[in-house]
Amino acid sequence: MASQLASVEGLLGLPRGPAESRLALARKILDGLPVSAVNRLASVVAPDDNAFKYRLIPRATLDRRNKTSRLTSEEGDRLARLAKVMSFALEIYRDPVKAREFMSRGHAMLDGQSPLDVALATGPGADAVINVLGRAAYGGAA
Question: How many CB atoms lie within 10 A of CB 101?
Fold first, then answer.
């Protein structure tokens, strides 16, 4: 099981009560995640890249969201999707540096694309990355 830091909620900087379910996260996304979730996730996924957050939310959009302090449900869903993939990578590799290396280099099972690019593009792409991570974790060809 992922630690609080490596949980989806932890990666987004959200508090999680002991009895909360994944449905609670879905509700938080629908209500609008705080804009701080962008910086929090970016600091874990790409700590040395100050512009990475703009791959998550375009600069002009992020500037507007800073005024309202909330993300739209679509933006929050995209962040949660990447946080879910990163959480699993951290759980598998147990080392943030190794997890980031996996996420940033091309992978044969993803047509040579980086897991990060695939996970950011679409939900099915994120599922494909999780599948690759699962194969690595549970002894399948990866």
Answer: 12
Question: Where do we find the tokens 């040395």?
Answer: 48
Task: Give dist(CA 42, CA 31) in Å, integer.
Answer: 21
- Condensed to tens digits (0 to 9), the pLDDT of residues 107-116 reads 999 999 999 9
Question: Over 47-64, what HEC string results?
Answer: CCCCCCHHHHCCHHHHHH
What is the length of the chain?
A: 142
C-alpha to C-alpha distance for 88 and 80, rounded to whole angstroms: 12
pLDDT tens profile 48-72: 999 999 999 999 999 999 999 999 9
The residues near 56 (Cβ < 8 Å, ≥ 6 apart) are: 38, 41, 42, 75, 78, 79, 82, 120
Query: pTM for the full model?
Result: 0.88
- b/e 102-115 (16+ beta carbons within 10 angstroms → b): bbeeebebbeebbb
- For residue 32, give both structure tokens: 């609008």
